[in-house]
Amino acid sequence: MDVPVNTLHAQGYVSIGCEPCTRPVLPGQHEREGRWWWEDAKAKECGLHKGNIDKDAQAAAPRSANGNGSAGAPDIFESPAVVSLTRTGIENLLRLENRAEPWLVVLYAPWCPFCQAMEASYVELAEKLAGSGVKVAKFRADGEQKPFAQAELQLQSFPTVLLFPGRTARPIKYPSEKRDVDSLLAFVNSLR
C-alpha cells in the first residue's frame, strides 16, 4: 500500500500527526489524547506540515498536461469533435461579442464522477453537432483555474455547461441537471 508515513513513526512516535504537531505518547495514554477536535488543546493533528508526504514521490507524480488540475485522473471528453480550450482560449471566447458560431463549453474536472457520467452523452452531442456550425469544447476548471472559472464563468459545481451564443457577449449557463444528449441538444437549439 502506498500510504504516506510520517518519518517520526520510526523514532517511536505512534501518533500520526504532522511533524510539528507530533509528540511522543506517554504510557497509558491513547495515541490521540489531546488531539481530538473537541478537546481544548493547542496540538492538533492537522496533517499539513512536512513529514507526512515523501517529497520524492510527490515530485515523481504525474502532472496534468495543462497544469491546471490535480494529477492522477485521466482526462475525459477525449474526442476529435470536442475542442480542448486553454485559459487563453476561453478568455478570448469571453471577450468576443459577435462570434462567428456558437460555442458549447463544459467546465469539468476529470476526477468528478458527475463529469465522468456525462462524458458519453457530451461526446455523442459533439459528434451530432459536427458540421452544424456549433463548436463543442471543454475547459478543465479545477486546480489553479477554479478561481478564474468561479469569477468569470459562473462555475459553482462540476460539470457546468455554458453556451456562448453568436449574438451575445456573455455565456448562458445550462440550467438543468439533465445531461443526456436530447436535453443538451434542445438547450443548444433553443439559443443558437
UniProtKB/TrEMBL annotation:
Domain Thioredoxin, chain residue ranges per copy: 50-192
CDD domains the record matches: PDI_a_APS_reductase (cd02993)
Record key words, sorted: Iron, Iron-sulfur, Metal-binding
PROSITE patterns in the record: THIOREDOXIN_2
The keyword Metal-binding is assigned to this record: yes
Pfam (any one): Thioredoxin
Official protein name in the record: Adenosine 5'-phosphosulfate reductase-like1
